[in-house]
Please model this.
Amino acid sequence: MTDAAGVVEITATGDLTVRPGPNQMDGPSDEELMALIATGDRAAFQRLAARSLPFALRLARGFVRNDADAEDLAQEAMLRVWINAARWRPTAPFRAWLYRMVVNLSLNRLRRAPFSALDDVGDPADPGLDALAGLEAREEKHRIDEAIAALPERQRTAIVLTYQEGFSNSETAVVLDSTVSGVEALLARARQTLRKALKPSRDED
Amino acid sequence: MSLTRLMMLIGGGPDRAGRSAEADDTIEAWLRDHFHATAAPAGDAAERVLSRLMSRPLPPQRRARLTGWWPSALLTSEFAPAWPRLAVLAVVAALGFALGSLDFARMHDRNAPTPLGFSATEGELGGILFDEDV
Model:
């Protein structure tokens, strides 16, 4: 998420890649676009939305786990960017502010409608697995999603930002309005909670 | 690593401490794999949301906080007469007149106590302002 070094991603094959950060793309930076949006510039808003929506969608989907809700949340977040552009101050990167908004909207949505089954429509079919192995894989994913969804909100947020978005602890701290040590404690408690949730029962031993 | 193997690590055993550390490292790697395996590409969805956003008028923007408390009637640059603006200007004018009238009344009452607690006659004032001719 940093401006200078870009954003490190881990691909599905486990390779590390670096994609340009928001301020490395051609054209004005996010902060420059926000200054234009504050004056009512629709073109600047469209440009910033086109750049930010993929990140907002991916983050929202990490919480709500279905495409329709994720799209609604990302749209609502961008509308709030437009409405509050004149009040935004660049004390932190724009992306941190956007992420915080998406996180808050996602958590509010989950409070109204608790975790539902993972949407399987987007899962690609793996021709290498037989039917039983595919079923087991889907069940495992569902069990993991249930365990993550059962985490307390701040622990779940820290998990999503760290393991899905690839944020560092300092970047996660900015979004959560916390400290690095606070984020480390959240992640440690989240891992401990997941261990307890996934611990096999006596019947399974 | 499968969930079953991870659960065996978490379950503990004779070497509980060793299994705990290994389980922590494994959970981290396993969480990363899980999120990246289930992440769906957002390309089409982003275009859909963007088209929905731009296909309709955007809502009104909130003003910056420094001017947020001003009545909106005073912030517009349109000077065409309109009763809300006239009403606001009339109230402001009345307040200004009331404040100015209070000071004006005190200035004309020479015998009224000044804020400093004494009154001055014209002669005394002349002595303060001008030195006597030597």
Summary: Chain B touches chain A through 38 residues (CB under 8 Å). The first helix of chain B runs from residue 3 to 11. The two ends of chain B are 108 Å apart (CA to CA).
